[in-house]
Every structure is written in C-alpha cells, then in structure tokens.
Design goal:
2 copies of one chain form a homodimer. Chain A contains 8 helices and 11 strands. Chain A is α+β, with helices and mostly antiparallel strands and about 240 residues long. In chain A, strand 10 and strand 11 form a beta hairpin. In chain A, helix 3 crosses helix 4, helix 5 crosses helix 7 and helix 5 crosses helix 8. The longest helix of chain A is centred in the middle third of the chain and has 27 residues. Chain A is globular and about 55 Å long. At the A-B interface, strand 5, helix 3 and helix 4 of A face strand 5, helix 3 and helix 4 of B. Chain A binds a DNA duplex (30 and 30 nucleotides) through helix 7.
Chain lengths: ~240, ~240
DNA sequence: CGGAGCTTTGACCGGCGTCAATGAGAGTGG
DNA sequence: CCACTCTCATTGACGCCGGTCAAAGCTCCG
C-alpha cells in the first residue's frame, strides 16, 4: 500500500506512529514513470506538481541562453520535489530523469491539510528541508572554492553519502549512471576537463573505474582534497510537537 | 512591541491576522547586537540558536583548511537564521556580521509550538523556506557557469533585489558595505580579480561607483550578462490552512 | 606623522576551456 | 555477420581567464 516512500524516508530521522505513516501514504495521488533523459518538469512552466522519487536518479537543472546547463541537485529515492511551486508561480528550474525513474505525485491540498492534522509531521518536513539546504550550501562552497579535482571529488563523496542514506548499495563500488558531460554540468566544468580530472584521480589512486562502476579507494584522503566535511544529521525530537 | 520583525517580513507574502502577528511577536526571546566583523555563530559549534535579523547585514560562510572562505548567503532584515540547528547537532556553517547588526532570538520551543497552534503560520514558514532555497540555487548556477564578470553582475542584482524586498532604499544607488575581498568570497573569486572585474563593469557602463555607493545603470543589460532571471514570488493562499 | 585596512595596478603563470580528431561500444538494419 | 550510426570517452594543441605575488596609492584614525 505504501505507494509513496515518504514514510520510509522520514522514518530515517524519527520513529513514526502507524497513524502518521497512514497520513503520509495518504498524500499520494498516483504515480508516473519516466525514461532516461525525459523531462519531468520544464523551466518557466506553471507546473506546480509536488512529487516524491520512488526509484531512479532525478535531477534539477537550469539552462542558460547559450545552451549550457547547470545541474543544481540530484534526487534519490524518498526526496520530495517541486516544493518551490508553493512560492513561485513559474518553475525556477527544470527537472529531468537521469535514469529510468518512477515518481509518485503528492496531492497539494492534502499536504496543506497535513499542517493542520499532523503538526508533528509538518515540523518534521520543515526540519528535513534544512538537510536539503545544507547539501546545497556544501555544493556552493565546492563550486566557489575547489579546483576541478576537488569539485569532482566532492561530488563523488556527496553521491556516495546520499546513496548510503537512501539505502542503496554502495559498499564496494557503485554504478554511476552519469556521463562525463553530466558530471561537468554538476561541477561547473566541461566534459573534456572532467575526463582529464577523473583520469588524474584514478592515477593518483583515489578511485578506480571500470565501465560505469566506480569505487572510492581512499574516502579520507579524497575528503581532504574535496574540502568535504562529514555531517551528522539528528533531528531534535524534543523540538517536535507531540505524536498524533 | 514588535521586537521581532517576523510579522512584518511574512506580511510581505500574505495578510496576517492580529492573532497571528501576536503569535509571531511572541516567539521572541531577547535580542543581541554585534559589531561589524563579529562572529555570531562559529562553525562546528553546538550553538543551536535561531534568530531573525533586525538590522544590518549578516552573512553565513564556510572556512577551508587553508584559510580561504566562501560566503554562502547574505541575510537582511527579516531573514530567519539558524534553522539548520533543527537538523544538525553541529553548525554546518558559521555566521558573522558584515555591518553592525541587531538580531532577535527566537525561542526554539515556542517555534515548535507554532506548528500545533498556528498551522497556517507553520505552512507559511515552510513556503518561505522555498524562496531561500531558490536564492541558493541561483547563486549555485552563477558560480558554476558564469565568468567573473557574470558572477559579480549576478551578485549585485541579487543584492539589489533583496534590499528592495526588505524595504531598504535602493532606487538611485545604494551603499554596498562589502570589501572587495568579501565580494570575492561571495563569488568564488580573489579580491584582486574582483577589483579588475568591477573596473570593467564601470568602464562598460553597467555600474558607477563612488566610495561604497553603487549604482546599477542598466539592470536589463546587466541581467543578460549575469544570466539572471527575475522571479516572481507568490505564495498560493489557497494552499495554506485557514487563518487562526 | 605613522600605521592599518582597503583599493588599484602590473607582471607572470597555470588551470581550465575550446577545438578537433580518434577510439570504443551499443544498437539497428541489411 | 557485417556496415552504419549514434553516443560517449579519450587525447592533444593551443589560448585565455583568473590566480599569485608584489608594490604602490588612498583614506581614515590615532
């Protein structure tokens, strides 16, 4: 019955009651699937859909006038997307599928009702938003101050961390479904330079690659050149309103 | 009585009832002032304070091992800071004062109670968070894909927009209380190159400077080289729960 | 008058973008 | 099984943007 994986996702942070799980599952209003490369939501459109990633890799991005692209965020299983529609009549960025992906729609009105009926869940959503924001600031720091090598290193570590968090298998290497051009669009580099940079990371023994399988050999040393700090997430349970 | 300016700030988005204004003002728990250059909150500290900027320019930033700095956000009157403390036991970034500044503290427990007592205000805070997030993504795109000239141009436009929104006078030029080093830390450049870049922007007639007064002469042309898009903010009132 | 902080300018160099060519697979149709 | 095509990875040559280092003005303040 759990079409949405919101309950599963929020359950990582806090223990949920059965009623709360039902409430979260009740937000769902159908699901959709997309093929690799498909556009889920266009930029400047008025599509205010809110949804949750069920499977696959989804990304949001901005296009510049000259055709270049900057990927703003990656989204994995459990991530809540499209919330910007609550504050902007036009989509500030576009959303697409990096792999075949499935999402399930969230009914906007029911999400609003959640604030009345389940204040604890609303507060939890509010707190979880902060995690997304901090991820964004970490990427901002990387783009602002890291060299190409550091940017790619930071990206790989962030991806590994987020996959681990989404319970995707990472331990000894993982499939990286990104072209070098997409890595460039994530890091603000060109595809050519991504290629050179990843070769250097291999030669220096930080990572190994074969096909699209990637393995991080020295997370600590990689973290140093990426200016990456591991962050503990722990939502203060005392702050949340009482269970319902 | 309105020590906090939260009510004023949120009132920009939605009409508030008197009771709601009282509730927002009641979140306040004292205020503090800081001198230009003072540190409001250190990185990796366990200071979980939440507060609102009352006056002055405040910024959050990250320090790298080698001493370089990346400024992540600027905060103006009405901005809510320190929410990351709800999800992270250690501050993910530091906060400082760019000018003399005054902030007022928000009582964390009362903020939690707001979710129970005033679901509409909680939903409004949730929606307003999206505005902050989109501001961050705009900066990310600028750092990822703009040249030095574009990055500085984008920064100046963003600052002007946010000052306008905070009802600070901007019309014909405004005082920019930032050193070129700080502009560099905002844009991911060095102070030296910021200097060269701003000279070019002057010579090309986009801006004029005298002292720290800055005037934007051609917002439209500047927006083009900054890949800047003006965004309308409009919180969907139908989505919010009923007034209380 | 002197010092501290900031701005401005020059010389030099390296990292990363650009352009272009080649290789390597995967899929498609004959 | 073999062209053919399309996408993506790889590599080299070359040039420019922006970093680095250093020195000199400018302003404010003691």
């Amino acid at each position: 019955m759990a079409e949405s994986c919101l309950a599963e996702h929020l359950g990582h942070y806090v223990e949920l009651t059965a009623r709360e799980r039902d409430a979260l599952d009740g937000l769902t209003a159908g699901s959709r699937t997309y093929r690799r490369g498909a556009i889920v939501r266009a930029e400047h459109g008025s599509n205010g859909d809110i949804f949750v990633v069920v499977s696959g890799w989804v990304y949001s991005f901005a296009l510049l006038e000259d055709g270049r692209r900057q990927i703003v965020r990656l989204h994995f299983r459990g991530d809540l997307l499209g919330l910007d529609g609550l504050a902007f009549p036009e989509s500030p960025d576009a959303i697409g599928a990096l792999t075949d992906a499935e999402v399930c729609l969230i009914d906007r009105a029911r999400l609003g009702a959640l604030f009345t009926d389940h204040p604890r869940l609303a507060a939890l959503l509010f707190a979880v938003q902060q995690v997304d924001r901090v991820n964004l600031t970490d990427r901002l720091v990387s783009l602002g101050r890291n060299s190409a090598r550091g940017r790619v290193a930071a990206l790989l570590l962030q991806i590994a961390n987020r996959m681990r968090f989404a319970n995707l298998p990472v331990s000894d290497g993982f499939a990286l479904p990104l072209t070098q051009e997409e890595i460039g669009d994530l890091t603000g580099l060109t595809a050519v330079h991504v290629n050179r940079t990843m070769r250097v990371l291999s030669e220096q023994g930080f990572i190994t690659r074969s096909g699209n399988m990637l393995r991080i050999l020295h997370p600590d040393r990689l973290a140093r050149i990426a200016n990456h700090s591991r962050r503990n997430v722990a939502i203060d349970p005392a702050w949340l309103p009482n269970r319902s």
